[in-house]
Amino acid sequence: MQLETLNLVFPSVKNSELYGRYLTNSHIEKCIEKLPKSRISTLGFSVESRPIYGIKYGKGSIRILLWSQMHGNESTSTKALFDCFNLFEKENELGKNILQRCTLMFIPILNPDGAEKYTRVNANKIDLNRDAQNLSQPESKVLRQVYEDFKPDYCFNLHGQRTIFSSGDTNNVATLSFLSPAEDEERSLTANRKEAMAIISQISKFLQPEIPNGIGRYDDGFNLNCVGDTFQRFGIPTILYEAGHYHEDYQREEVRRLMFIALMKGLDVITTSTNTNHYDDYFNIPENSKCFYDIIIRNTKLNLTDDGLIDIAIQYQEKLINGQVHFIPVVQEISKLQNKFGHKEIDAHGVLLETDNNSTLTIGNEIDFVLLDNKKTSLIP
């Protein structure tokens, strides 16, 4: 599988009906209706009785379970899954070998109530990724039942991450991140963990030309309440995918393309070379840090009498308003931010920062624009 080939085919398989950050059952149902009915099943229902869909491809002996939107507001990988479905429907050579050797079970939206409200949690305000032991929620029970019935050889746990994450303590944003979850407190390097690490290593190497130094590795602190840690403990190689940020891509359409590539490469690695010879390359992937804000205004003053210059950190708060996700700029930090970076940086060159009503700027303020030297500077992406 070649990176250039995946990039060439992507525009023809990108699902044009799915766009942006807000993705619900009503959005994907329009796409599901166009798929062969034999591929589709209703696996169960959410707290608020929304269906949880399963979509199956392939006829091979290697069984892979993939689920997305366990957190309802993490939709990027769901878009990428439907791009993969379009590729599989075209019977493209890229997917042919995968479908011959693998049976793939997809759950595109595990948390449809959270997706509807654009929240991380489900309708009972439970984080499904902390419910792997209690299985207190219907969505958690659906996933566990599918796991037990399908009996996967591999699991892909698909998520999205905030814009704050960097690849190491650097000015490199973590556009994609991965994790081979621990399965015990000692973080033992068991055979299945090593296999997951080896797959991640090959995905990372494959994507370096696209996002050099833009891939991070999540901390592998053990938490048995997490689904990935639990499935890894069951002895099944489990890979956590995280869709992060790309320059000016707040709708995550570029990240969607990169996630599509990462998914296809992960499946390709499993079908062609599932050995653990180079699992230790996984540890060369920089661990994620929290080095980013959405905007940093540097070298400014809040009062004319101030002796020194300060920096203002702005982070977007995502709010669902009338069916659209809006990015609300909120003041996060006011200090010198030497070891922090902004996805957008504004150098005030020492001038006074003012608000539209001359109010005092404080942490927690929602603010759409500022005045620098009496010039209006928008903070909306």
TrEMBL record:
It comes from the Bacteria. Gene3D superfamilies: Zn peptidases (3.40.630.10). Residues 18-267 form the Peptidase M14 domain. Signal peptide: none annotated. It holds the Pfam family Peptidase_M14. PROSITE patterns: PEPTIDASE_M14. Belongs to the peptidase M14 family. This is M14 family metallopeptidase. It comes from Winogradskyella bathintestinalis.
